[in-house]
Automatic annotation (TrEMBL):
Keyword Magnesium part of the UniProt annotation: no
Domain of life the protein comes from: Bacteria
Record organism: Marinobacter aromaticivorans
This protein's UniProt keywords: Membrane, Transmembrane, Transmembrane helix
Pfam families: Guanylate_cyc (PF00211), MASE2 (PF05230)
Organismal lineage: Bacteria, Pseudomonadati, Pseudomonadota, Gammaproteobacteria, Pseudomonadales
Protein name per UniProt: Adenylate/guanylate cyclase domain-containing protein
Domain Guanylate cyclase: 244-379
PROSITE patterns in the record: GUANYLATE_CYCLASE_2
Length: 481
């Protein structure tokens, strides 16, 4: 007959261990009633019932021997569960309660089913079983208790009277009530403390999520997700993979930095990086780093769609970045930035070493290898607005993207000259059916992507173009006159 509160703690043992670890060694104090104390309370109450019953003649004299057993058993149970090999037995507390049910049933059978004392002992046993293991434990306990009652009742027979004297009945009821009240109080205290612990852990979980999202800003989303989902361990390790590597920088940025104030230059650069990062993530690129006005992105790790698709996604990203740069340039011009800023890009595809580099306490997830150097070199020799790709990249994308042969270059680390190509545009956008048009002059800039224009926007654009054309014709007629 164990303490209900102690059993509630035992039933949630694993959850309690998890809560304690999550609260970072600062758990909410949970005041459970120990198994030993609960069992002592229950068996002492039973001993009092026996003594009073014997004094009042409700029980036989030899039942006093049960008092000795009731007072000794809690100590024996404590030694068995804490000082012997049984302490390592799974669900040992539940098993000890089943032993209590057998002992309690034996006591009820010995006293010949005297009504109120028997009901009091049975009630304490069922109360403990229900709290420890729920309906399943309660049913098993009731079954064992019933079997024990029948076995001992068949041996010792019924009592002379199933009714007990008034004092015996009152003490039986009071003892059971005291046991239930004390264990219920501890169960309430424990449940309250567990709720406080749950609230504290929930708050810490929310703080951890908020902190992880802040830290994710310093990592590429793909890398961050693979770490926080457990797919990747945070340790110094690398692997060889075939990746598509992208480099870009802004032509004219150095001159612009000499003309603008640092605050305005920082705002412009962050606006540029934010726009380009959105494009990179749209195509599934892993953003490696921002250095000055340069961007480094690679495709194929942590996730890959295959070499051909990775290369195509990388070049598609570069084409959209080039288009996006035109939109940005128009906005900067409207803000008074006259320096013509152009993006230049280089892409190569090949085997690189990718993973965590650095020290155990400070790592950097990046890539190294001669293909990285080739992409950087292609970016450095590209003309403003130009996308240069290596032969390996060209061979993977040539069926979907139009490229122009640009000859060969010599690159350190490569034994022979490297053929390079200039990306023109998607083949689907070439010819009269192309959706993308652009035109720039001093005082005029047009960027048109018809696939992204809605019906409502199309009418507005047509109206603006007609107004502009009418004005230009009027000015031309005026000049002629």
């Amino acid at each position: 007959m164990m303490s209900a509160s102690a059993d509630l703690r035992n039933a949630s043992h694993s959850a309690g261990k998890s809560l304690a670890s999550e609260t970072l060694n600062n758990p909410v104090a949970i005041p459970p009633m120990p198994d030993y104390s609960g069992r002592m309370l229950a068996y002492t109450a039973s001993a009092v019932i026996i003594i009073v019953g014997v004094v009042q003649g409700a029980f036989q004299q030899w039942h006093l021997w049960l008092v000795a057993g009731a007072l000794i058993w809690p100590h024996v149970a404590f030694l068995l569960t804490r000082r012997t090999f049984l302490r390592h037995s799974p669900r040992i507390r539940q098993k000890m309660l089943m032993a209590d049910c057998v002992i309690g049933g034996g006591f009820i059978g010995c006293i010949g089913l005297v009504a109120i004392p028997s009901a009091s002992v049975a009630l304490m046993l069922m109360f403990s079983a229900l709290i420890i293991g729920g309906i399943r434990q309660w049913l098993i306990g009731c079954g064992l208790m019933a079997a024990s009652i029948l076995a001992f009742f068949s041996i010792f027979g019924p009592a002379d009277s199933f009714q007990s004297p008034l004092l015996t009945s009152l003490l039986s009821i009071l003892s059971t009530g005291l046991y239930i009240c004390v264990t219920a109080f501890y169960s309430h205290q424990q449940a309250r403390a567990l709720m406080l612990a749950k609230t504290q852990i929930q708050n810490q979980r929310e703080q951890s999520i908020a902190l992880s999202h802040k830290l994710s800003k310093y990592l590429s989303p793909q890398v961050w997700q693979s770490i926080f989902t457990g797919e990747r361990d945070v340790r110094l390790e690398t692997q060889r993979k075939k990746l598509a590597i992208f480099f870009s920088d802004i032509k004219g940025f150095t001159e612009l930095s000499e003309e603008m104030e640092p605050e305005a230059l920082t705002e412009l650069l962050n606006h540029y990086f934010n726009g380009m990062a959105e494009v990179a993530l749209k195509y599934g690129g892993t953003i490696d780093k921002f250095v000055g006005d340069s961007i480094m992105v690679f495709f194929g790790d942590p996730t890959s769609r295959g070499q051909r698709e990775d290369a195509f996604a990388c070049v598609s990203m570069a084409i959209e970045m080039r288009k996006h740069m035109k939109i940005m340039r128009q906005k900067w011009r409207s803000q008074g930035i006259k320096t013509p800023l152009e993006i230049r890009m280089g892409i190569s595809t090949g085997y690189t070493t990718v993973g965590n580099f650095g020290a155990e306490n400070r790592m950097d997830y990046t890539i190294i290898g001669k293909e990285v150097n080739l992409a950087s070199r292609l970016e450095s020799i590209a003309e403003p607005g130009e996308i240069l790709v290596s032969y390996e990249t060209f061979s993977l994308i040539k069926d979907r993207i139009m490229c122009r042969d640009k000859g060969e270059i010599t690159v350190k680390g490569f034994g022979r000259p490297v053929p390079i190509y200039e990306v023109v545009d998607f083949r689907r956008d070439m010819g009269p059916n192309r959706s993308f048009l652009e035109h720039e002059h001093s005082g005029f800039a047009m960027y048109l992507d018809s696939d992204k224009i809605s019906e409502k926007e199309r009418h507005s654009i047509l109206s603006a173009l007609e107004d502009a054309a009418e004005r230009l014709r009027h000015e031309e007629d005026t000049i002629r006159d």
